[in-house]
Design goal:
heterodimer, A: about 180 residues, mainly alpha, Ferritin, B: about 160 residues
Chain lengths: ~180, ~160
């Protein structure tokens, strides 16, 4: 059941029609594992930005960090939309932990829930920016090494996210130099 | 600057069609950066020159990849239709952004190819195009190269 549904979400991008271009269908387990790992890494990145933005919000870096954080939330939403799980059973595991403070009928604030452990980030704004920059570069590089086993449409999404994260690292470096 | 490379099912797995499309985008980029550089001065012109050279290197890489697959790389056109008139430095920067976005999308086609070397090359060049585009824009985008039409509607978290 998982095998059938996981093979469905193929992304049609310019110049890519027909299954011939998509190569050998991969094992669905690897597909789901890749997605879950990518989702976990995006969640961690979002939590890091939220942790840095907390104390540093007033010191002028928010103008750089907030748009980058919004892009990570967009990454997470796209990754989650591609995670096909059997109805019921595993669906709960794919969702972020709901904040218990959320009232009934009230949707959870997007991107707000973080994992059980708050990430540790440097206290000084300059060190925090450098930390985020290194984390973005590492995340971008790591995604590049994982493309080989992904089906075509997922590889395209991961490659695009990798490129986005590389630009985040660059813009954080430029912002740190300017500031 | 649109590429319409012929596709054959036999070539799809090795990515010949996607490689030709990326090559067509690079030919157009090299032409376009000539126009960009002509309308910029100082640091802007230096950046345009640097990107122009990078696209020439990428073109050469694509041509050798195609030749190694036994395929003749497609030649550049004599001229390319620009997306709009380029009269000012601001127009030139806008053109550079369009060039990099189109190149990025072309390289996403390579990422769809199953051959690992082709896929990796596509991803690396996509990243380079995204970095150039971000420098010209001064801002970043969430999904370099991916047309908005292929992004799935979902619980989009917007700040």
């Amino acid at each position: 059941m998982l095998a059938a549904s996981a093979a469905l979400p193929l992304l049609a991008v310019t110049g890519c029609k027909g299954v011939g271009a998509l190569g050998t269908p991969p094992a669905p387990a690897a597909d789901v594992g890749l997605l879950k790992a990518a989702i976990a890494r995006e969640r961690l990145m979002i939590a890091r930005y939220e942790a840095v933005l907390g104390p540093a919000r007033a010191d002028g870096h928010a103008a750089i960090l907030e748009p980058v954080l919004a892009e990570h939330r967009a990454h997470l939403a796209q990754l989650r939309s591609r995670l096909i799980v059997p109805a019921g059973a595993a669906a709960a595991a794919a969702l972020p932990a709901s904040p218990s403070a959320t009232g009934p009928g009230q949707p959870a604030a997007p991107g707000k829930p973080v994992g059980p452990a708050e990430p540790v980030v440097p206290a000084s704004p300059a060190a925090a920016i450098a930390f985020l920059r290194a984390a973005e570069q590492d995340a971008s590089d790591a995604l590049l090494t994982r493309l080989g086993v992904a089906p075509a449409s997922l590889a395209q999404l991961l490659a695009s996210i990798s490129a986005s994260e590389a630009t985040h690292a660059a813009i954080l470096a430029a912002g740190a130099n300017a500031g | 600057m649109n590429a319409s490379a012929a596709r054959s099912p036999a070539a799809a797995g090795s990515g010949v069609a996607a490689l030709q499309s990326a090559l067509a985008a690079e030919h157009a980029a090299i032409y376009g950066y000539g126009v960009v550089g002509a309308h910029l001065a100082g640091a802007g012109q230096a950046a345009a020159t640097s990107d122009w050279i990078a696209h020439q290197v990428a073109r050469d890489d694509l041509e050798s990849m195609l030749r190694s697959l036994g395929t003749q790389p497609q030649a550049a056109a004599a001229a390319y239709r620009l997306p709009g008139p380029v009269l000012t430095a601001r127009d030139a920067v806008s053109l550079a952004i369009v060039i990099e976005d189109r190149v990025a999308t072309a390289y996403l086609g390579l990422v769809a190819v199953s051959a690992p070397a082709v896929r990796h090359f596509g991803a690396v060049r996509l990243r380079a195009a995204a970095l150039s585009a971000a420098r010209w824009r001064g801002t970043t985008v969430a999904f370099p190269g991916l047309p908005a039409s292929v992004l799935r509607p979902g619980p989009r978290a917007r700040a």
